[in-house]
Amino acid sequence: MECVPVPQTARILPGVLEVFFLPGFAVVSAVLPARDMSVGGHLLASVGASVAITVCASTLLGATVGLAQRSIALALGALTLVAFFFAWLRERQFGRSDAVELDWRDGAAG
Amino acid sequence: MADFRQPYLQRPHPDSQLHPSCEPNRALVNAEREPQTLQPRGRHDHHRARGLHRRLGRIGQAVAPAWARPSQTKRFQGPEEVAKTRPDRSRFEELRSRDADPVQRIPNEPTESGVRGFNWGGSTTFVTISTALGLGCIQIANQRTFQGGNYGKNLYFFWCGLILMFLPIALRATMRRTPRPERMALILLLAAALYFVKIENSPYAFTYNDEYIHWENTQHILNNGHIFQYNPLLPTAAYYPGLAALAASLVRLTGLSIFVSGLIIIGVARIIISACLYLAAEKMTGSSRAAAVSSIIYAANPMFLFWSAQFAYEDLGLPLAAFTVWWLYTTRKSEGHAAQIVTVLAIGAVTVTHHISAFALTGILAMWFLAELIMHKPREQRRYVGSFALLAGASSSIWFFLVARPAAAYIINENINPALREFNQLIYGHAGRQLYSEGTAPPTWYVLVSFAAIGVIMLALVPALYRTWGTLTLHGDGSAPYQRVPLAIAAIIAISFPFTLLPRLTAVGSAISARTSEYVFMGLGCTLGLLALPAIPRLDASNKLQRLYGALGKLFRPVDFVLASRRGTLVLTAMVTVIFFGEIAIGNDYSEILPPPSSSPSGFPWIVQPDVISASIWARDHLGANQPFASDFIDSLALATYGDQDTESQEEIFAVFFGDSLAGIPAQLIKESGTRYILVDWRMTQGLPSNPGDFYFSQWEPNAGRYTKPFNSGYLRKFATYSCSRMIYNSGLVQIFDVSSITNGTCVPKLISGASGRKASLWEPGGCVQYRQRLYAPSWRR
Does the beta-carbon distance from A41 to B279 stay under 8 Å? Predict the structure, then answer.
């Protein structure tokens, strides 16, 4: 399959998000009820979990099939989608019961 | 007498800005008292939520956290209705209420009236401008030194810049009425600003020794796609590929260079550790002000400014370990086990990233578990900690002993044993390391401020430990002492601070002591942060311990007086400022704070020089990659990375460079190691080494850590005065010799007749090449 050439500058933002935010955001949304964490906490958890996930995924790829652009993009992308799916399932199951937890005063950070 | 506890427990301050997880039943408490507080605060917030909801799309709506959902679900529900609609969480609510954090016992801080976020018109703007000016001053200092300006004068610019950055942030963060979000933003701003100081120091390429090691690792992964490739600079690093694999992933996905990717990774890691420490300290102390003091003191550790900002595995491993502890601390009371998937991933990431961080994480989790066990925390509330301590211990040990096999030799034989041996000698009366004796002698004020920092820490530690004791023993508010276990662990770590200073009296141990501070200052910060809390009132003594506590309390009344009200803010600011600047003086050699001049630096430079980079690139282009090279420690970094050469281990090859003769042991070593080329840097003969451990090649070399004069020039001259050694590159101070004829056994080195009379000419730039040209010229030209 031929790769579509993408300008390097256009790859920076998606690449940074894929490594530092999206996998963690998806996984944290899937595993933790939103009511248990505030905005700042959720952001911090997303970034920290993303770094942990990418380290594990890239180490695993480097030890097995090889760490290349396609393999790491597929691994992180697939993991993100799967985690988003579980988050969606979880939200369908428990979502409405969290309504009362919204409190803007506490949502500033932390 | 017991009334002082009642307001803290029962009546949270209406303006409290503490984290909701610090006050588990906050929503219900508010619902009973002030139903309107559950509504969004205004129209702006309502529209913000709807806008964000639209932008997130369908998937985003499903997974968005509660704060980002539109307001149709925000109809106020009374406590009864809440109980009906909520799933069965009674067990967890019960656990939470029983295991209420100590925050409820500590009075909430007053905040600026009417200001819940940032004071954009005043303090925030001032602090931001001041930080920018500080960074500007530091950039001027770096630039002028790089261009060959007076080091001492430029250093004043540097300190002025740091003061402009640090002082306003410290003052504002320790003020009593600063809003919580602003405090947290200030801590993150300080972490980011200090990171920019390091970037200003080396803005175009990696320059720190450890950065070359991990750059080499990343290059190998990018070239081959696989981890565990041999790293000649530090074989152990290849077996901890977390940082290099992360950097390689970022390079592959974004197309950025390794240097830029490394800067982004370490910047993100720094934000993670600063935020995690702040939030954890806030939860432990129950005060955003105390958390701010804790975070500032952590940022004052001697390694934070430069060492912890380099592209090295510890600077990713430690933030990941901090994240693991924070995540576990925050989520272990959550329903179900799903949240702990992230803990497992984080432990795995720490394990493959850095050995010491993995062991430190194991130690902290084990201490946490044991402390809760000793303090009789109910079994059902001791969730996960023991299991994860076991998991972290098992994974880090298995990786360390079975996968990363060179690591044990590196840690034990090259770091711990030499330090212990020197320390042992020190105890038995041998002269230890003379402090501040390396490199350029620092001015008196530089030494004084470092001792002042240690003095202030030791002085402040006493009342801080007393307050820790108070929070641990005085629990008449109904909460159990096990709820303050993290504070007890922090205090134990803080007590170890004076002992971690002792290895500084030895040459090898100074590096270990410095690196220990990154871990010790976590506990130290949390303990000293307690000084930002109001004094804990003394109870009626009900047992011996409390009577002793009360008796000692009289001694600390002056401290309570000094730390009260506005003067307390000034005292705390002064304290953290002295600690910050003193620890920078402790952690950094006076002559190495600013970058060396770009041309003709005096003495033996502590970072790779451009002419060595040129020589390395020449070697790669003309000799090919992966040639076995021997050189000094600093130059081997450039040879391995820019030159892509296989540098020999300095521990095995250093003896080649010692002695006047190339025959005998040096030739034998060259042959045994397979060395084909030797890079000679004549700057070694002009200055003392100033790397940690103070050596040119290896810590095992003669005089390592005890050099009083530069390297003997006769030792380097032998490569030109003996046969079998052919100079193939010369740029004045940097030369490359081909010794492959010794390696393959076709030549036995002998002193070239008449060579000794020409030694002086070797000192002149180009003199050596002229001399060698004469020696190796065809006979008809002689």
Answer: yes
Is A32's pLDDT higher than 80? yes
Q: Which residue has 């031929």 as its token pair?
A: A2
Best to test chain A binding among B226, B261, B342, B361 (most A CBs inside 10 Å): B342
Q: How far is CA B656 from the centre of its chain?
A: 35
Contacts across the A-B interface (CB distance below 8 Å): 249
Q: Which helix (H) or strand (E) covers residue B730, if one does?
A: strand B726-730
3-state secondary structure of B14: coil
Higher pLDDT, B1 or B651: B651
Classify residue A2: in a domain, yes or no: no
Q: What is the pLDDT of residues B176-206, one digit of tens each?
A: 888 888 999 999 999 999 999 999 998 989 9
A5 occurs within a structural domain? no
Confidence of residue B432 (pLDDT cuts 50, 70, 90): low
With a threshold of 0.95, does the pTM exceed it? no
Measured between CA atoms, the residue of chain B closest to residue A53 is B345
Q: H or E element: which one contains B736?
A: strand B734-738
Distance between CA B280 and CA B702 in Å, rounded? 47
Q: Which two tokens stand for residue B186?
A: 């200030």
Provide the pLDDT confidence category of residue B600 given band limits of 50, 70 and 90: low
ipTM exceeding the 0.95 mark: no
Domain carrying residue A20 = 14-109
Structure-token match 């309390």, residue found:
B553
Dist. CA B319–CA B469, nearest whole Å: 29
Q: Measure the CA angle with vertex B400, ends B395 and B402; round to 5°.
A: 90
Give residue B701's Cα distance to chain centre. 29
For residue B505, which of B393, B624, B422, B386 has the smallest C-alpha distance? Answer: B422
Amino acid, res. B683: R
3-state SS, one letter per residue, for B619-688: HHHHHCCCCEEECCHHHHHHHHHCCCCEECCHHHHHHHHCCCCCCCHHHHHHHHHCCCEEEEEHHHHCCC
H or E stretch including B612? Answer: helix B610-623
Q: Which residue has the higher pLDDT, B585 or B702?
A: B585
Q: Whole-angstrom Cα distance, residue B325 to residue A27?
A: 18
Pick from B69, B215, B206: nearest CA to A91: B69
Residue A8 lies in a domain: no
Q: For residue B338, which phi and psi values (nearest 5 degrees)?
A: -60, -35
SS (H, E, C) B52-75: HHHHHHHHHHHHCCHHHCCHHHCC
Are B681 and B687 contacting, i.e. CB atoms less than 8 angstroms apart? no
**Contact residues, A window 37-96, toward B, CB-based 8 Å cutoff:** 37-42, 44-45, 47-49, 51-59, 61-63, 66-69, 72-73, 76, 84, 87-88, 91-92, 94-96
User: Which residue of B lies nearest to A49 if distances are taken between CA atoms?
Assistant: B342
Which H/E stretch holds residue B280?
Answer: helix B258-285
Our CA angle for A11, A15, A21, nearest 5°, is 145
Closest CA to B572 of B287, B210, B265: B287
| High-pLDDT (> 70) share of chain B, % | 75
How many domains does chain A contain in total?
A: 1
In a domain, A35, yes or no: yes
> Where residue B42 falls among pLDDT bands split at 50, 70, 90?
very low
pLDDT at B280: 92
A91 → closest Cβ in B26, B63, B221:
B63
Give yes or no for a contact between B184 and B278, defined as CB atoms under 8 angstroms apart. yes
CB contact under 8 A, B349 and A20: no
A35 vs B447, which has greater pLDDT?
Answer: B447
CB contact under 8 A, A36 and B41: no
Q: Sign of the CA dihedral A22, A26, A31, A34?
A: positive
